[in-house]
Amino acid sequence: MMPEIVVNKEFQGNSEVCSLMSRLPVAFANGEGELIYDLRNKLRRFVLADGTVVIVKKYKRPNFFQKICYSTFWKNKAKKSFLFANVLLGMGVDTPLPIAHVTYRKHGLVSEYYLATSEVKGVESEVPMLEMDAKNDKEGMMELASCISKLLM
User: Fold this and answer.
1) Angle at which helices 77-90 and 138-152 pack, to 10 degrees?
2) Is the pLDDT of residue 132 over 60?
């Protein structure tokens, strides 16, 4: 399986990040990194030799219908999360920095996908919709809804 790997420009020169992204299925299967969440999805925390901390989310395997849709019509969850994080950062919303998203295909269909982000400790993320609602900011809510709908397509 050849992965589709998209690395944030800020991390493209980091060979350790690129190496980790290219071997995520093996890293997860071998229990590398610290397992920090393990229910429907799995989250692992990797500390690279240069001190970079990378949080990687492995999404649950898509069902057959999702495989077809993610392979043809929709962006998969990792890709949408990567794009959405960049939009939120551009809006000044505090969110983990997206490092990369990785998609694997089997027999032409999306079979598994991962999202890598930076680690953020001790920071409460603000939810812009709650603030907008409290201020009755209909224009702001419409702009945010427009951005979200574009990312989901």
Assistant:
1) 150
2) no
User: Would the pLDDT of 23 be above 70?
Assistant: yes
CB of 51 closer than 8 Å to CB of 92: no
pLDDT at 148 over 80: no
Tokens of 83: 């794009």
- Given a contact cutoff of 8 angstroms between Cβ atoms, the answer to whether 53 and 36 are in contact is no
Rg (CA), the chain: 17
Give the length of the chain: 153
The side-by-side arrangement of strands in the sheet containing 34-38 is 4-7, 98-106, 109-118, 53-58, 42-47, 34-38
